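U., I forgot to send this yesterday:
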Amino acid sequence: MIDILVYLFENYQDFTSHPKPDDLARKLSVVGFEGQEISIALDWLAGLKNLPAVEFACDFRSLRIYSIGEQQKLGVECLSFIIFLESAGVITPALRELIIERGMAIEDDPVPLGKFKIIVLMVLWSREQSLEPLIVEELLYEADPERLH
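Result:
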């Protein structure tokens, strides 16, 4: 699934510019992706598209408490990465919640940091956030080489 998400990011200018799901599935199949992976990726993308764009404000003293399930599935590395992104001003609390939800939606348990970085990239891309080249490099090219396994 992660390979497909990376392919979409690299080949489509914006999140909404890719073809409709059936056409996209055919195109992904033609370029060599397998049917089950395509189905999983398209379901994940549909889940991302269907999430409401909710924005809310949090006081800088607010503290996000992660559930036991989130702690176990996302692990210390992914949760620390979220904290880093939020403290650096890259993501808002609302984006944080979308990222957590999409991280919890993948099959991996625990989620490897490399895959999680791709999830962050896809959430930012889907919400048309400005993606500085250094952020893209950190999320896409500097991700753990094991992200695709």
